[in-house]
């Protein structure tokens, strides 16, 4: 199918839509939850651990709904699914501003999490794999960077709004803003497959020329979901998701951590803005590096780099400038969740049954939320300090290096057994 080379391929417009959707809903809503913890607990007299349990409930809902989400996305119009997801996620977040009891968070986080499964987790990687045969790593990196871009703007703004207008107003403002931005974006730019626009995926013609086999791409290569789920590579990938998400979950406590060191909530919002800038740069960097040196080497580099902010926070975290720099580097490393998670899945198992494999593997992400998020809150509630949590993060980074290396040993076994075809 011939294409006018001067015309921008619709894949790039789709990517712009994904950037606006994921950026607003992840960087402006999901990642903002931690900014409210200190203010809400003080205002309503709720313990930090008790309130943070809603993160755990969210993760349980996410884990249970992920397999269903993949089926719904395949069965129904993707735009209808994403609009419904946006209303559930952003609308529930806005309604937090009306709550007077911790039970409000426990109940509303259920529809919020269901919506976020579609909007923040499943849709982006699946759409990019459908539309990009070329620049796949770059597209994944740009998608992941969108959370950092929007977060760098919205997190400091939210911190200042909480300080000046209160947490109730800020919840409502962010939720309504999310719906205003995302719903028109989905209608205009999102399509499930290139065939719906009479197109081929971006780079398909070039890939065919390079391989000289059109049939090679008619049937994507990789491992079936049934085989993948029985492999050691799959279980180590789940461990990677669990550990990196546990590491990244500390982002919800950056603002409370800053307050515990004597800073105000506005500075906590600014620090989270630094985290988001680091995440933005990290997402682009990891996408570029994956295209150049592969997902395995990029992931190991990211985990080793993560030890730098750990050392900085342990040794000099009470210095404002050191704290800010460390949080920025931390955000850079945590960008690997959104970027390297999907790319590692593709590198290990291919594209043959990617949605089924990825939707199961990311349960490690959900399990981490169930365990790590409330655990951090209760550890602080019991000890009055975040220091032990920082040490735990360092240990998890080292364990993840081992998990990544072991996953690729598992891939080699799949290839030797003839399952990778």
From TrEMBL:
<feature type="transmembrane region" description="Helical">
    <location>
        <begin position="140"/>
        <end position="163"/>
    </location>
</feature>
<dbReference type="InterPro" id="IPR011701">
    <property type="entry name" value="MFS"/>
</dbReference>
<feature type="transmembrane region" description="Helical">
    <location>
        <begin position="169"/>
        <end position="190"/>
    </location>
</feature>
<feature type="domain" description="Major facilitator superfamily (MFS) profile">
    <location>
        <begin position="11"/>
        <end position="412"/>
    </location>
</feature>
<feature type="transmembrane region" description="Helical">
    <location>
        <begin position="105"/>
        <end position="128"/>
    </location>
</feature>
<feature type="transmembrane region" description="Helical">
    <location>
        <begin position="322"/>
        <end position="349"/>
    </location>
</feature>
<feature type="transmembrane region" description="Helical">
    <location>
        <begin position="265"/>
        <end position="286"/>
    </location>
</feature>
<dbReference type="Pfam" id="PF07690">
    <property type="entry name" value="MFS_1"/>
</dbReference>
<keyword id="KW-0812">Transmembrane</keyword>
<feature type="transmembrane region" description="Helical">
    <location>
        <begin position="298"/>
        <end position="316"/>
    </location>
</feature>
<dbReference type="GO" id="GO:0005886">
    <property type="term" value="C:plasma membrane"/>
</dbReference>
<feature type="transmembrane region" description="Helical">
    <location>
        <begin position="233"/>
        <end position="253"/>
    </location>
</feature>
<feature type="transmembrane region" description="Helical">
    <location>
        <begin position="12"/>
        <end position="38"/>
    </location>
</feature>
<protein>
    <recommendedName>
        <fullName>Major facilitator superfamily (MFS) profile domain-containing protein</fullName>
    </recommendedName>
</protein>
<dbReference type="GO" id="GO:0022857">
    <property type="term" value="F:transmembrane transporter activity"/>
</dbReference>
<feature type="transmembrane region" description="Helical">
    <location>
        <begin position="388"/>
        <end position="408"/>
    </location>
</feature>
<feature type="transmembrane region" description="Helical">
    <location>
        <begin position="44"/>
        <end position="66"/>
    </location>
</feature>
<feature type="transmembrane region" description="Helical">
    <location>
        <begin position="78"/>
        <end position="99"/>
    </location>
</feature>
<dbReference type="InterPro" id="IPR036259">
    <property type="entry name" value="MFS_trans_sf"/>
</dbReference>
<keyword id="KW-0472">Membrane</keyword>
<feature type="transmembrane region" description="Helical">
    <location>
        <begin position="361"/>
        <end position="382"/>
    </location>
</feature>
<dbReference type="InterPro" id="IPR052983">
    <property type="entry name" value="MFS_Riboflavin_Transporter"/>
</dbReference>
<keyword id="KW-1133">Transmembrane helix</keyword>
<dbReference type="InterPro" id="IPR020846">
    <property type="entry name" value="MFS_dom"/>
</dbReference>
<keyword id="KW-0813">Transport</keyword>
């Amino acid at each position: 199918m011939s294409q006018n080379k001067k015309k921008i391929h619709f894949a790039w417009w789709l990517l712009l839509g994904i950037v606006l959707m994921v950026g607003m809903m992840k960087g402006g809503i999901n990642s903002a939850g931690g900014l409210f913890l200190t203010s809400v607990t003080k205002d309503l007299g709720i313990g930090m651990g008790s309130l943070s349990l809603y993160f755990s409930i969210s993760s349980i809902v996410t884990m249970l709904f992920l397999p269903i989400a993949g089926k719904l996305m395949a069965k129904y119009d993707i735009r209808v699914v994403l609009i419904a997801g946006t209303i559930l996620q952003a609308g529930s977040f806005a309604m937090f501003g009306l709550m007077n009891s911790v039970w409000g968070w426990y109940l509303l986080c259920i529809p919020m999490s269901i919506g976020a499964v579609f909007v923040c987790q499943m849709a982006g990687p699946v759409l990019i794999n459908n539309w990009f045969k070329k620049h796949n790593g770059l597209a994944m990196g740009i998608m992941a960077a969108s959370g950092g871009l929007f977060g760098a703007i919205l997190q400091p703004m939210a911190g200042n709004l909480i300080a000046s207008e209160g947490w109730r107003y800020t919840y409502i403002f962010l939720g309504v803003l999310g719906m205003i931005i995302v719903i028109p974006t989905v209608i205009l730019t999102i399509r499930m497959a290139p065939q719906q626009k009479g197109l081929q995926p971006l780079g398909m013609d070039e890939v065919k020329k390079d391989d000289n086999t059109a049939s090679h791409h008619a049937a994507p290569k990789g491992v079936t979901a049934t085989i993948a789920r029985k492999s050691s590579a799959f279980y180590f990938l789940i461990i990677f998701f669990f550990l990196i998400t546990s590491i990244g979950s500390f982002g919800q406590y950056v603002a409370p951590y800053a307050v515990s060191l004597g800073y105000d909530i506005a500075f906590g919002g600014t620090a989270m803005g630094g985290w988001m800038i680091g995440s933005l740069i990290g997402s682009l960097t990891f996408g570029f590096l994956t295209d150049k040196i592969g997902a395995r080497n990029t992931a190991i580099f990211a985990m080793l780099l993560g030890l730098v902010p750990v050392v900085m926070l342990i040794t000099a975290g009470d210095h404002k400038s050191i704290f800010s720099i460390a949080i920025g580097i931390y955000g850079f490393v945590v960008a690997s969740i959104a970027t390297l998670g999907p790319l590692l899945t593709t590198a290990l198992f291919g594209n043959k049954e990617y949605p089924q494999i990825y939707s199961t593997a990311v349960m490690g992400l959900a399990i981490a939320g169930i365990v790590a998020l409330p655990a951090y809150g209760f550890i602080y509630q019991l000890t009055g300090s975040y220091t032990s949590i920082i040490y735990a993060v360092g240990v998890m980074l080292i364990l993840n290096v081992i998990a990544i290396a072991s996953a690729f040993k598992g891939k080699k076994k799949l290839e030797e057994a003839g399952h990778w075809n």
